[in-house]
Specification:
The chain is of the alpha/beta class. The chain has one domain: TIM Barrel, CATH 3.20.20. The protein contains 9 helices and 8 strands. It has an 8-stranded parallel barrel, surrounded by 4 helices. The protein is globular.
Length: 242
């Protein structure tokens, strides 16, 4: 199966543009709030409504900030249309009990939504900058916790992308471990259309972008349908020649 394209959007207007561009999965995120910045609930509901009006099946995911953001706050009830949810792992590294705290925050979200949310564990590949547990530890924890998948992403959005942090050998090993556990693999980290041929080789289930979908490749600019079409064409061409 060729990978699916996930595009992170900040509101309903961007969701429309991403759908026009041909994304397979919409992800709701506020990029100005960081790598896994959570959008306001009004924006989350607006995007869920746009997706609900689509004739075709478009999956929906939501970024929910960092796990530590929820130690002293009550999680809101996520709309029913959200298929996947992601919590960042920045700042968890020094905490020996991080897995329990991460599970507890996820449990609170499940309780608020009154259902079992499909969780995507977030492995920051620049984990030292994020002060998060290293990717190998996250991959093991995701399996133990029964997560639906693992996302590799960068915490710092400063232009260094996926392959600036992970060697191809490291990525291959991690992807194989996750697939062996029956989970999805999503890759992100300022991925460009030029990275696609190399990425296809690892058979990720999802390629996740924000920067490459925005005007001028700047992640806080608006989503452009044409930029997504360009990216989809790169995925299509890479899949054919693979
Ligand atoms: O979930 C995916 C991220 O939003 C990717 O963002 P980025 O392409 O700016 O690294």
């Amino acid at each position: 199966m060729p990978p699916q394209l996930l595009v992170s959007v900040r509101n309903g207007i961007e969701a429309e543009a991403a759908l026009q561009g041909g994304c397979d999965i919409l992800d709701i995120k506020e990029p100005a709030r960081g790598s896994l910045g959570m959008a306001d609930m009004a924006a989350i509901s607006a995007v869920a409504e746009v997706v609900g009006q689509q004739p075709d099946d478009v999956a929906l995911s939501a970024a929910l900030g960092e796990t530590t953001d929820w130690y002293a706050a009550a999680p809101p009830a996520l709309p029913a249309g959200i298929n996947y949810a992601k919590l960042g792992t920045a700042g968890l590294r020094p905490d020996l009990d991080w897995q329990q705290r991460w599970s507890e925050v996820r449990r609170q979200f499940d309780l608020a939504a009154d259902r079992d949310i499909a969780w995507i564990a977030v492995a920051y590949i620049d984990w030292e900058l994020a002060n998060s547990p290293p990717p190998l530890e996250i991959v093991a924890a995701a399996t133990e916790a029964g997560c639906a998948g693992v996302l590799f992403d960068t915490f710092a959005k400063t232009g260094r992308g996926l392959f600036d942090w992970l060697s191809e050998t490291q990525l291959r090993g991690l992807v194989n471990d996750i697939h062996a556990a029956g989970q999805l693999v999503a890759v992100a980290g300022q991925i460009t259309a030029e990275n696609v041929p190399a990425l296809i080789d690892f058979a990720p289930d999802i390629i996740a972008i924000r920067s490459a979908a925005c005007a001028g490749g700047q992640r806080t600019n608006a989503i452009e349908a044409e930029a997504i079409r360009h990216f989809k064409t790169a995925m299509h061409n890479a899949a054919i020649s693979h």
